[in-house]
Predict the 3D structure of the following.
Amino acid sequence: AIRMTQSPSSLSASTGDRVTITCRASQNISTYLAWYQQKPGKAPKVLIYAASTLQSGVPSRFSGSGSGTDFTLTISRLQSEDFASYYCHQCYNFPYTFGQGTKLEIK
Amino acid sequence: QLQLQESGPGLVKPSETLSLTCTVSGGSISDSNKYWGWIRQTPGNGLEWIGSLYYSGTTSYNPSLKSRVSISVDTSKNQFSLKLSAVTVADTAVYYCAREEITVGRQYYYDYWGHGILVTVSS
């Protein structure tokens, strides 16, 4: 199975900050990567798919980049509602796998 | 607006079979270019993909669970189901059903999720 490694596992930031989360795949997955946001007690919500395509309705302050094995999720100006956990997900082949998550907390 | 809703027992005894159903509303489970999946989440292991289903009945399973898992569809009820046999405490998790979108460019992602159901394995 493809291993997805996210960093950092947790991150403290302030409203208005720019933050970047990285995800590394254990093998080449082209651009078959999605990013999800999850708030406590809620299901994950897709933000980005195909590594860099913004899902409809998601604010433009979210962006994704990368291909191959290295990917990033960037939030350009943090809003209060962005404090949550974030997961990367490879959909290159079965079994699908997820990163271990990054918890974004208020500083 | 598409909605998915998991249902089933919240408590299962060790060695028994966990059975969950996902009811899809606001859309058809028979839509082409859509797969349907089960994902679970535990505090220790994060998000784990269990398996995927196409409305025709084609399935794919996580090898880590393959000998114990079965996913099936009932198109007449717009539902799909998960069965996981011989459960242990390690199968305690929140179980989600989700729709997998397949884009024109053959990219995949889960765009609609159920709320999730906590299943506890305990005697």
User: Anything to note?
Assistant: Chain B has no helices and eleven strands.
